[in-house]
């Protein structure tokens, strides 16, 4: 489903620029970070410092 397929999601994503990203360590424990994001059409582009756990985890999502 694309962001623009749902009016409520589209409006919310457009109106905000910050989110909480939670990923899981290999042990299963959660790690949460505040991230900035931008839209590129229906793609969300996230920004997080390069050395953080979530930066490494989010790059794995793209793979």
Please summarize what this structure is.
With 63 residues, this protein is of the alpha+beta class. It contains 2 helices and 3 strands. It has one domain (3-62).
Commentary on this structure:
The chain is elongated. It is built from 2 helices and 3 strands, in the order αβββα. By secondary structure, it is α+β, with helices and mostly antiparallel strands. The two termini are 19 Å apart.
Mean pLDDT: 80
Q: Which sheet architecture does the biggest sheet show?
A: 3 strands, antiparallel
What topology, given as strand order, has the largest sheet? Answer: 1-2-3
**How helical, in percent, are the residues?**
25-40%
Strand proportion:
35-45%
Low-confidence segments: none
Cα distance spanning the termini: 19 Å
Instruction: Report the principal-axis shape.
Output: elongated
β-strand number: 3
> How many domain modules?
1
The assigned structural class equals: alpha+beta
Work out the radius of gyration: 13 Å
The number of distinct helices, counting runs of at least 4 residues, comes to: 2
SSE order: HEEEH
Q: What are the SSEs and their pairings?
A:
Layout: H1 7-15, E1 18-24, E2 30-40, E3 43-47, H2 53-62
Antiparallel strand pairs: 1-2, 2-3
List keywords for this structure.
single chain; 63 residues; alpha+beta; 3-stranded antiparallel β-sheet; 3 strands; 30% helix
